[in-house]
Design a protein that fits this description.
The structure holds 2 protein chains of 2 kinds. Chain A contains 16 helices and 12 strands. Chain A is of the alpha+beta class. Chain A has 3 domains: 124 residues, no CATH class; 115 residues, no CATH class; 172 residues, no CATH class. Chain A has a 5-stranded antiparallel beta sheet with strand order 1-2-4-5-3, with helices on both faces. In chain A, helix 6 crosses helix 9, helix 13 crosses helix 15 and helix 13 crosses helix 16. Chain A starts with a helix and ends in a 47-residue tail after the last strand. By secondary structure, chain B is α/β, with parallel strands linked by helices. Chain B is globular and about 95 Å long. In chain B, strands 1, 2, 3, 4, 5, 6, 7, 8, 9 and 10 form a 10-stranded mixed beta sheet that branches. A 4-stranded mixed beta sheet of chain B has the order 11-12-13-14, with helices on both faces. The interface between A and B is medium-sized, with 25 and 26 residues.
């Protein structure tokens, strides 16, 4: 018997198993339905089932909800009270099907209501915070939207703080997040396409884009990839990202993630696409390019000269965070002639008596730096600062005093760390750190020659990489010269009247310099 | 490709990196930074071979100290002298004497003794290794030393720490003084060696309390041998004619008062009458501009005729200096150190082709030519004041 056949058989057995306890169809009998429901959930203590009579009649009915997921005021005022008391004052039909219809249309007064026909509808609704209304003798149920639960309030996003810019960030509740987006974009063409992710968890996932702006091919491709997702649960949008990204071997992130509604709305306006997942404040933005990882919303909020300067600074930071320690190692151990004489003598003087070759010294310091960074990130902020002091001052200073590392190496590593912190996209800055190690090894083995070789290798990789079909290195290569006015140079806002060309948007104009429209 | 194959390939690549990598790695502190070299002719030639003695100034960075940490009392350099008959051989010999591998990437100077430079062919052959070796830079400056070259590496370098740095910085000041010629780099010298024209190199000597960097050594281009020297004044005249120097001081006298003229710009123009090559007439016009830097006496400068008088005096002085140099070049050295043949080549190519082989030697057209110098000086400004004192009225 082949392995695959065995697998499918095992899966069949598994999926058949729970069905023995309860049936998937709704019965006419109320009691049977309730027992069925209890069996399905194995009588959890937060399941509330309340049986009562429809007011003025002898018809039995029941409501069921999960405690804590619903707004109990809503359940009482709009469902129970109406069915028990209001029904008294009305002429109710005797036929049960008609009564069900009247309750659906006239008596229960929640805003959002639906009819459920089977247990699948019912369980998903119940577990996401809806209230189920049973009427005895009917094979259907009413699903009323009563969702409400305790949630974190809106706070400033910690991972992406700005000096100037909106202070609100996304939260874990997808509904709140979509409200955020709606408030930013009042375009009727804003599309929010819903998917359910996870075999078992059935998380809500929303793909947001602006119809008529975005290239439809991107939407189609993203939807196709999302449909291919097959896993139990997606606790964070990182799962989605890693499932649908173009190349999982690449060190580079092929989509951006953000907690900032303003960043998402600006991306949508550019002709990009956002993926919201319930339960996480991190929203994915597709497609991403290398250049977009080095941009911050603040570039646009400050005046253009400031924005341009900051962009240039960030490209410098990217260079330093990838190459600096490697260049130092290469120059110091292979090409002392390339260092200006006085600096060379002073490096030689400080390295006098250091027991390790520059490569080991650099590796030691880089790893120490990573440890400090990791420790600082995991600890609460108050202790995190202590780590900074212990690491930076104590270890740095005493390592130099003890002659384990040279002071210049400490400067190199510190500069490298600062540069990597100043990259606005955290995921990109981590991938730069990975590259740093590669370059360090290359520099130790072959000097500058090795650095150049690995640089060529990384370049080959980058020009081959794509994000949802969009080349990762664009607009540098393939070159879109018109997009260069928003690349390293951030030209004044009125001149940015065209959407990025590399996205091949349907509507390429986002404004007009002459201001003739309207 | 199976997984096994892939792993084998990866291991091969790793071995490649680990075995081929690092092969010329030298940690920076293990280098002996040679910052300057002095080459002398050694006396002991028992087998009749010419022996060269090479002195390397090697920096010891630890003694040099860092900005925060003053170095120790010991001098921050080691002068290592070794003798042999090839420079490369001497370099290899040095490995036996010092723990650090001599590294020439930061070399600044090569000082060659006069005695060696006088030796025909030896000068150029000795420089071969400096030009050929990849570690050497083309920016290394070549200086000719009066007397023993290695003594110059022992001078007291205050306020610098290294004698070589001290000399190197002095040579860089040449643009401020007209008595010094611009430093000649190895790259330029390479060019000189490849051509047959004569050339000059800066000269250095030790005087009682330090070094004296002035004058120039004149080399015959045909056999790359030093044939004579120019003193400070002659160098001044040569610089004025060649127009190499941008700034400089010219001292002159008006009514027995010493005045100093600060030359700021000098332009030369050379016209050559080539009708009779055996008796060429060369007209050199020097146009100079500058300001009055210092004056003795108290005559007012607001008088244009006084300024005119000064200009005439300065012109005369420049002509005098130029004539002095031309005299020396034509009569004593019989070498065209003034690069007049360059102008000849540019302006009268036909004539130059016919006579350039005999320009400096044999028939020596250069020495037989008549050279007329005329200078035209403009005093652009007289400084921030007319007079500093008002006592004597002239």
């Amino acid at each position: 018997m082949s392995r695959r056949r065995m697998k499918t058989q095992r899966r069949k057995r598994k999926t058949n198993n729970p069905e023995e306890n309860f049936s998937k169809i709704l019965h006419k009998d109320l009691e049977k339905n309730i027992i069925n429901l209890k069996n399905m959930l194995d009588e959890p203590n937060d399941l509330v089932i309340r049986k009562f009579m429809v007011g003025g009649t002898d018809y039995k009915c029941a409501i069921a909800y999960i405690d804590g997921l619903v707004n109990e005021d809503l359940v009482y005022n709009n469902i129970m009270k109406n069915v028990q008391l209001f029904a008294n004052q009305k002429q109710l039909p005797n036929v049960k099907t008609e009564l069900f219809d009247v309750i659906y249309k006239r008596i229960i007064s929640t805003v959002d209501m639906d009819i459920g026909y089977n247990f699948d509808d019912l369980s998903l609704a119940l577990l996401s915070g809806d209230t189920i209304f049973y009427l005895d003798g009917i094979e259907q149920v009413l699903i009323t939207d009563t969702k409400q639960w305790e949630a974190r309030g809106i706070e400033e996003p910690i991972s992406e703080t700005l000096i100037r810019g909106p202070r609100d960030g996304f939260v874990e509740n997808i509904q709140t997040n979509l409200v955020h987006l709606r408030r930013h974009i009042r375009d009727p063409n804003l599309r929010l396409k819903k998917h359910y992710i996870g075999r078992r968890s059935k998380k809500t996932l929303v793909v947001a884009y602006i119809d008529g702006v975005i290239n439809p091919k991107i939407v189609k491709e993203i939807n196709r990839r999302l449909k291919s997702i097959d896993m139990d649960d997606a606790p964070e949008s990182g799962y989605i990202e890693q499932w649908i990204e173009d190349s999982f071997l690449s060190p580079f992130p092929q989509c951006l993630n953000t907690e900032r509604p303003d960043k998402v709305s600006a991306s949508l306006m550019d002709g990009k696409l956002a993926i919201f997942l319930d339960g996480t404040p991190f929203v994915l933005i597709f497609p991403a390019t290398l250049a977009s990882g080095l941009q911050s919303p603040e570039d646009y909020y400050e005046r253009w000269a400031v924005g341009t300067l900051l962009r240039g600074l960030r490209y410098l930071a990217a260079f330093i965070s990838i190459f600096f320690p490697a260049l130092y190692v290469a120059l110091v151990s292979y090409h002392p002639g390339m260092i200006p004489p006085k600096l060379a003598f002073s490096i030689a003087a400080t390295r006098e008596g250091v027991p390790f070759p520059p490569f080991l010294e650099a590796l030691l310091m880089v790893i120490t730096m990573e440890l400090l960074r990791e420790a600082g990130a995991r600890l609460p902020t108050t202790i995190g600062q202590t780590i900074g002091i212990v690491g930076g001052l104590v270890i740095g200073e005493s390592a130099v005093q003890a002659g384990i590392v040279s002071p210049i190496m400490v400067i190199v590593i510190a500069l490298n760390a600062i540069a990597s912190f100043s990259i606005p996209t955290y995921t990109l800055s981590i991938s730069f750190r990975i590259l740093l190690f590669g370059f360090l090894f290359a520099a130790a083995a072959f000097g500058l020659f090795g650095i150049i070789l690995s640089y060529i290798m990384v370049n080959i990789h980058i020009v081959n990489l794509k994000s949802v079909g969009i080349p990762y290195s664009t607009p540098f290569s393939p070159t879109f010269l018109k997009d260069w006015n928003d690349l390293i140079l951030r030209s004044p806002i009125p001149t940015l009247s065209k959407r990025p060309q590399y996205l091949e948007t349907e509507d390429d104009e986002s404004g007009d310099l002459k201001g003739e429209k309207q | 490709m199976t997984k096994r194959n892939l792993i084998q390939i990866i291991i091969c690549f790793l071995l490649l990196v680990l075995s081929a990598g690092c092969w010329d790695q030298v940690n920076i502190e293990e280098n002996g930074f040679v910052i300057g070299t002095a080459v002398d002719l050694s006396n002991n030639d028992s087998d009749g071979n010419i022996n060269i003695s090479l002195t390397n100034q090697i920096v010891s960075p630890d003694e040099l100290g860092t900005p925060t940490n003053e170095g120790s009392e010991n001098p921050p350099f080691i002068n290592l002298t070794t003798t042999g008959d090839s420079i490369f051989e001497i370099n290899r010999k040095m490995l036996k004497e010092i723990s650090r591998v001599p590294f020439y990437g930061h070399s600044r100077l090569v000082i060659v003794s006069e005695k060696l430079a006088h030796n025909p062919e030896l000068f150029a052959s000795m420089l071969d290794v400096f030009i050929r070796d990849q570690e050497m830079r083309r920016g290394i400056k070549i200086i000719i030393a009066e007397g023993e070259a290695k003594n110059i590496l022992d001078i007291d370098p205050k306020p610098e720490k290294l004698p070589v740095m001290h000399i190197d910085m002095i040579t860089d000041n040449s643009y401020k003084s007209i008595e010094i010629i611009e430093p000649v780099t190895l790259g330029r010298l390479h060019d000189y060696l490849l051509h047959k024209n004569s050339y000059v190199l800066p000269k250095i000597s030790i005087n009682n309390d330090g070094i004296d960097y002035s004058g120039a050594a004149v080399f015959d281009g045909t056999n790359d041998k030093m044939v004579g020297t120019l003193n400070g004044l002659e160098t001044k005249g040569m610089n004025l004619i060649k127009g190499d120097t941008k700034e400089g001081m010219i001292k002159f006298k008006v009514n027995n008062h010493i005045m100093a003229f600060d030359l700021e710009r000098a332009k030369k123009r050379i016209d050559i009458k080539v009708e009779d090559p055996k008796n060429m007439e060369i007209f050199i016009t020097i146009k100079a501009e500058g300001k009055l830097a210092e004056m003795y006496g108290s005559k007012t400068l607001s008088n244009p005729s006084y300024i005119k008088e000064m200009e005439d005096k300065i012109s005369k002085k420049i002509e005098q200096l130029a004539d002095l140099t031309i005299d020396k070049a034509q009569k004593e050295l019989k070498l065209d150190i003034l690069d007049i043949d360059k102008t000849l080549k540019e302006k009268h190519y036909g004539t130059w082709r016919k006579i350039h082989k005999d320009w400096e030697n044999k028939k020596n057209y250069f020495s037989n030519s008549r050279i007329h110098v005329s200078a035209d000086v403009k005093v652009r400004e007289v400084g921030s004041t007319d007079r500093v004192k008002e006592k004597e009225h002239e």
